[in-house]
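call fold(seq) -> C-alpha cells
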Amino acid sequence: MTERIVGSLLGRAAKDTEALKARLRKGLRFAAFLAVVHRYELSQDEIAKVLALPARTLARRKAERWLRADESDRLFRLSRVAALAEETLGTRERAVEWLRRPNRALGNQPPLRQLDTDLGSRQVEDVLVRIAHGVYS
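ret:
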C-alpha cells in the first residue's frame, strides 16, 4: 500500500527501484510537491522546512516546474514516511495528526520536524514499526 500511495503522489509509478532512483536523480516535477502538500494537509512552510527550501527557492522551483535531485530525494523521503504513517495508523487523517503531534519517543518533538534528516526519518520509521507491532514505548 505504501508504494501505491507514494507512486500516486509522485506521478506515474516507476516500474522498479532503478527507475525510481533515475527519476529522483533527474528531479521530480513541482506537481509532486503540491500533491504531498495537499494529501497530507501540510502548509508550504511546513514542507519547505522539511525540504530545506527557503521561500525564494521554493518560488523559483514553482516557476521552473521542477525540483532538483536533492530536493526530490527529500520529498520522496517525506512522502514515504507519511505513507507509512497512513498505512500504520489506518487513515490519512490519523497520519496527518500523528505527524504534527509531539511524540515522547522522539524527544517530545513532532515526527514531521524529524524528517529533515535521514537519521530523523529513520527514527520516525522505527516508531511507526514499533506501533505496527504493538510496542508503544
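The chain has one domain: 2-132.
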